[in-house]
Design a protein that fits this description.
Elements (H helix, E strand, L loop, with lengths): L2 E6 L5 E7 L2 E9 L2 E8 L5 E10 L11 E9 L4 E8 L2
Antiparallel strand pairs: 1-4, 2-5, 3-4, 5-7, 6-7
Amino acid sequence: MKTIWKYLLSIEDEQEIEIPSPAMVLCVQTQNHIPCIWCLVDPEMGLIKKKFRLVGTGWEINNSIEDLKYIGTTLLLKGMIVYHLFEILT
């Protein structure tokens, strides 16, 4: 049986999150001033580490575009700060 889980993100360039595999990242949004992702998971499956990159507008990105999968964009501080979330595929 599948369910949707929420994971809190740190305000860091790169981070790893343990998620049951397979998982589908549904979206990134801000809740209570914290960026979060929501994933469709099967809780009975084993955990894997997924890597994510949080990039602010105008920041340099050192990863190859082929190594990144765009997840979404989220706003902090009433839209004053804009972050874009990518899954690192390699």
